[in-house]
Design goal:
The chain has a 4-stranded antiparallel sheet, sandwiched between helices. A two-stranded antiparallel sheet has the order 1-2. With about 240 residues, it is of the alpha+beta class. It folds into 2 domains: about 5-155, Lysozyme (Orthogonal Bundle), CATH 1.10.530.10; about 160-235, Sporulation related repeat (Alpha-Beta Plaits, 2-Layer Sandwich). It contains 9 helices and 6 strands; from the N terminus they run H-H-H-E-E-H-H-H-H-E-H-E-E-H-E.
Length: about 240
């Protein structure tokens, strides 16, 4: 294994394992797709948009977009088209959005798969990709780099840290999200936005702090409540 491939797998594996615990998407499938779609993290989309899976931006996407030419297939024949793609804050968000897509009913067999070969075949049959060699490419990567071992690795073994995020509102409108941020800023609270896909809709969460201590997160909530802001906690491994 080269330095490049080793570095990529070491970086993405913990994120894929953490995601698997929540979404049932096999870590080996997530990693193999990321390798194939992003060219080991060196593709144009991966570099400029943190987009590891070539996730396209629909009208429901509230975030930033990046436009580029891409190759598609029709009747097993390739053709080129200009397409808008999603821009993410980081790889964790890209993985989270990818797995959110796979929660749709047509990917049920992918989520039910306990074997990576079945998962690779089912994701193609469900229409995720148009390349007829897609399943074999994924399986080849998984077996070459022994990625299936990550399907049996626990989150605790990854060394990831559990963070508690304090959320003050979740919006489908960027205008409304920014208005909430301005109201918070007026009261002395700094915040940032995170795009969270759910049921086919992209929500903008207004985050006021991210803590490794639940006690500190609860303390921030108390301060917000004193100023009239309702909030809730979201725990995630990073």
């Amino acid at each position: 294994m080269s330095t490049k491939t080793d570095h990529f797998i070491q970086k993405i594996a913990p994120l894929a394992i953490s995601d698997m615990a929540k979404t049932k998407v096999l870590a080996s499938l997530t990693i193999a797709q990321a390798i194939l779609e992003s060219g080991w993290g060196e593709s144009e989309l991966a570099v400029h948009a943190n987009n590891l899976f070539g996730m396209k931006a629909t009208d429901a996407w509230r975030g930033v977009t990046y436009t580029k030419e891409t190759r598609e297939y029709k009747d097993n024949e390739p053709y080129t088209i200009k397409t808008k793609f999603k821009v993410y804050d980081g790889w964790a968000e890209s993985i989270r959005d990818h797995s959110s897509l796979l929660q749709k009913e047509r990917y049920t067999k992918v989520l039910e798969a306990k074997d990576y070969k079945v998962a690779c075949e089912e994701i193609y049959q469900a229409g995720y990709a148009t390349d007829p060699n897609y399943p074999n490419k994924l399986i080849g990567l998984i077996e070459q780099y022994d990625l299936q071992r990550y399907d049996f690795t626990s989150v605790k073994e990854t060394g990831l840290t559990l963070y508690y995020r304090v959320v003050v509102g979740s919006y489908t409108s960027r205008v409304n999200a920014r208005a909430q941020q301005q109201a918070l800023e007026h009261e002395g609270f700094k915040s940032f936005l995170v795009t969270v896909p759910k049921d086919g809709v992209d929500y903008l969460r207004v985050i006021v702090g991210s803590y490794t201590s639940q006690e500190n997160a609860l303390s921030q909530q108390a301060k917000l409540k004193a100023k009239g802001f309702n909030s809730f906690l979201v725990a995630d491994y990073v």
